[in-house]
Amino acid sequence: MSENSTTFSPELIEFINEWREKPGNLIMVLHRVQSEFGYVSQESADEVSKMLEIPFAKVWGVLTFYHFFKLTKPGDFNIQVCMGTACYLKGGEAIIEEIGNLLKLEVGGITDDGKFSLEAVRCIGCCGLAPVMTVGGEVFGKVTKNQIPAILKKFA
Ligand code: FES
Predict the structure, then answer these.
(1) Residues 58 and 86 occupy one common structural domain
(2) pTM for the whole thing?
(3) In terms of domains, do 91 and 133 share one?
(4) Same domain for 122 and 60?
(5) Ligand 1 within 6 A of 132 CB?
(6) How far is the CA of 90 from the centre of ligand 1 (A)?
(7) Which residues of 24-56 are buried (b: 16+ CB within 10 A; e: fewer)?
(8) 2: pLDDT confidence band, cut at 50, 70 and 90?
(9) pLDDT tens-digit profile of 11-39?
């Protein structure tokens, strides 16, 4: 990842130029920015606003309306704990609590060393494995509180 979160790659710039005149371009471009940086910073939103000639307030409005967009930088390993119905009923909340205690982290937060961030998410589609969590995209199912230290250690 680039040091400067506002520096768009040549591929991203090309993508934005391709989409400049197309309908629905703002969402497409913001998705692309997020997949490049893992989130959309205020600086990135400003850059998109200038490149697409869309007022910043509108860009920011879209970003804050859709929960999909992240406005803060995630950790090197983003932890997602599913809070969909199946996972919730099987103890998703206790999983979040345990991770929070172990990493001294709140939902939406990031550890001081920038290694882990924590999110509560909706059903991720593997309810049969409830409760489910992911770390850096790797899925862990039927998670118990006791397993969490070992899971986190894999990424430490
Ligand atoms: S409810 Fe958690 S994966 Fe579906």
Answers:
(1) no
(2) 0.75
(3) yes
(4) no
(5) yes
(6) 10
(7) ebbeebbebbbebbbbbbeebbebbbebbeeee
(8) very low
(9) 999 999 999 999 889 999 999 999 999 89
